[in-house]
Amino acid sequence: MSTPAELMPIYDDRVNEILRSLSDGIPREDLAVKYKHRDYRSLDMYMRRKNFTWDKEEQNYKPIHTKIGQKKAMDENMHSGKVAKVIESFKEGVDPKTVAQNNGFKDHKRLAEYMTNKGYEWSGKEENYVRKVGILKDDKSNDDVKEKGSQKHQKTVKKDDELQYLVKTLYEKLNMEDNPIVDKMPRYLISGIRKNKTTPISHLLHELIENFGYEKNVPHREIIETALIDFFRNYGYKYEVEELFKNS
């Protein structure tokens, strides 16, 4: 099976030099300083954008598709987004407090809540988070618990369906095109000469862009362009945006 184009490694001059330097035994920390990254984690992020991932055994970066092939990307052991970053950090022996801080959590308790909500639990054996598996023991004492849990789940699903229907109906009544329930980002094709626009933003917003782009596999440029188009359409420039697309 061929590798998708978006997963193909990008071998530019800096990437090649980083790979050669690591093969020669130069630590990631030293390379991070050399290329003016905040630390080796920022270097990891740079290499991920080039479709490489850190291989702990090889002590070097390897193409993502190679790593995926080894681990069988479609199996249950694959994780995505921030969850993958957290699990990888624990694999590298980073302490919980530091893992929490590096991933934007107030403390390790908030990190634990996030991982629980994502369907993971802490494993003392693995010393890491793993997917929750299994069911309650099939004894009499747990039968009532399972039945009550099932009833509660059915009620919750029913309420969620009703809420989604009401929201969708409201959006249709207001002639609004976007559905907030659907996790799907619109893609706009915008013609014209590319120009750079440097604008300082909050480091927290910057982190959101980084995380969203990595998790959804969306280039930063598309995130910014989509945000601007939606902003103009919602705040008085809908006609101008429509004209922009007509001329594209």
How would you summarize what this structure contains?
The chain has eleven helices and four strands; from the N terminus they run H-H-H-E-E-H-H-H-H-E-E-H-H-H-H.
Please describe what this structure looks like.
The protein is 55% helix and 6% strand. The chain is mainly alpha-helical. It folds into four domains: 1-78, Orthogonal Bundle (Arc Repressor Mutant, subunit A), CATH 1.10.10; 94-134, no CATH class; 137-184; 185-248, no CATH class. The strands form two sheets. It has a two-stranded antiparallel sheet with strand order 1-2. The radius of gyration is 23 Å and the shape is globular.
Biggest sheet features = 2 strands, antiparallel
Determine the fraction of residues in helical runs and give it as a percent range.
40-55%
CATH architect. name of the largest domain: Orthogonal Bundle
How are the strands of the biggest sheet laid out side by side? 1-2
Order of helices and strands: HHHEEHHHHEEHHHH
Number of domains: 4
- First and last CA, distance: 36 Å
Radius of gyration: 23 Å
- CATH class designation of the largest domain: Mainly Alpha
Q: Indicate the low-confidence ranges by residue numbers.
A: 71-76, 134-142, 178-182
Instruction: Give the overall shape.
Output: globular
Element layout with pairings:
Blueprint lengths: L12 H11 L4 H7 L5 H10 L2 E4 L4 E4 H8 L9 H11 L4 H7 L5 H10 L2 E4 L4 E4 L8 H34 L29 H14 L3 H15 L3 H9 L2
Helix pairs in contact: 2-3, 10-11
What key attributes describe this structure?
single chain, 248 residues, mainly alpha, Arc Repressor Mutant, subunit A, two-stranded antiparallel ribbon, 6% strand, globular
